[in-house]
Fold these 2 entries.
Entry 1:
Amino acid sequence: MNKDFIKIGHRGAKGYIAENTIESFKRAIEIGVDAIEIDVQLCKTGELIVFHDNRVDRLSNGSGMVCELDFDYLSSLDVGNGSIIPTLEETLDFIDNRLLINIELKGMGTSKATYDIVDFYIRNRNWDKGNFLISSFNHIELKAYKKLDSEMKIGVLLSCIPTDYALIAEKMGAYSINLSIEFISQEFIDDAHKRGLLVLVYTVNSTDDILRLKSMGVDGIFSDFPDLL
Ligand code: G3P
Ligand code: CA
């Protein structure tokens, strides 16, 4: 992607419609985002589903831990207005290489499972590798992904200010630092840029914050209301 500023729909268009659903991705695309962020995790039967929480209770009419639930049960749940939990494959089929997808790996084992699917879509479904960005707070999984595909763009998720600022991401050969708005500073942005890294900031839902971050020179913002970007 060669843009000055990347507008990222957080879990699609979470502020308007049930998050991490095909309907939410559709809304984000209609709004005109440059990228969509999704969360993936493994369920008990091994499928990679697009869902944020460890438990299904808050976001659906079901109950239990995703890692202890079968795919058949998970796919029967209503996550809002009749929407269902999509798989990673269903999400990729819907987005169909139209824009950048940021896949956030949630939990152990997600790097290999995601790699197998992403690599298949690059080889067999005409997806550009440049349209993928893999991120995680779990830097072990992120490192494991980079080992499987050294050319894949990775985003190091942080919700802190490391003592060496962006060094951790440079060492991992990352494309971006995906930093919580709570920890953004000009020093951090400048340090990341010096190391050749983009700075993408989550989750930003106020116009004042968006203007402030843009004036600080961030490279992209995740928003639940991506039309604000
Ligand atoms: O990828 C940015 C952001 O989504 C990370 O936090 O908890 O919303 O997945 P979370
Ligand atoms: Ca996320």
Entry 2:
Amino acid sequence: MATILDGKAVSAHVKAEVKREVEALAKQGVSVSLAVILVGDDPASHTYVRNKEKACAEAGIRSKTYRLPADTTEQALLALVETLNADKAVNGILCQLPLPKGLNEAAVIAAVSPEKDVDAFHAVNVGRIMLGNYAFLPCTPAGIVELLDYYRIDPAGKRCVVIGRSNIVGKPMAMLLLHRDATVTVCHSKTEDLAAITKTADILVAAVGKPRFVTADMVKPGAVVIDVGMDRDENGKLCGDVDFAAVEPKAACITPVPGGVGPMTIATLLKNTVTAAKLQNGLR
Ligand code: GUN
């Protein structure tokens, strides 16, 4: 029986800490606020944004969501970002991805002021992560590292395999594990003999976006398995990138879906928003 890495429980600790910090800032006359932009009607994005709003409210962070129709023009979207960049009452700006077809994600990411970029997607913040001197943590990877820390799983010297090379998860995940002295391999859709590589992993991070992609034969006995997926199976049921039922008996530790990585991502977002407020008020 694997240890279940309980992101819901661990994120509750992180969120309680954030709440204390927000209260302490309020006593100094500093309020903390997040602006969320949600374009179109992707149901998963709407769920994620609702979860982010709820978490902000619980932590005492003011949040405002700008829900825009799918046919919003790039010009209108960039104009909103500029308005939020200039608004001193807004500390953090997050544009939920993916954007509807026809909107240029790179242009929107580049438009967000790096000082308010609580996703850490802007090139300036990505570069800082690469160099290891970052203020904003990449939300999902940092949430995963915090979860590992909580369970005293130390990546140092370990073989870590990340499946997926997205800018949001795979690449920054590899970088954070490297900062923790892991030996990191990044696999992707063109990787040959994937299972041979994943089977070497002491820590395996699946960020593929395909339901139950990681099967038991791809996992080393006693591995730590981190599932970033939020997928729907053929019956429309929520599941991860890992075949949990088959992999769990083989793993030493595993994250569930839901209740694993997702809540940790949101907890990191809250931390970043507090960091933004502090930086903008000269408190760090
Ligand atoms: N879409 C999936 N994950 C994320 C995330 O962490 N931030 C944003 N903005 N969009 C996402």
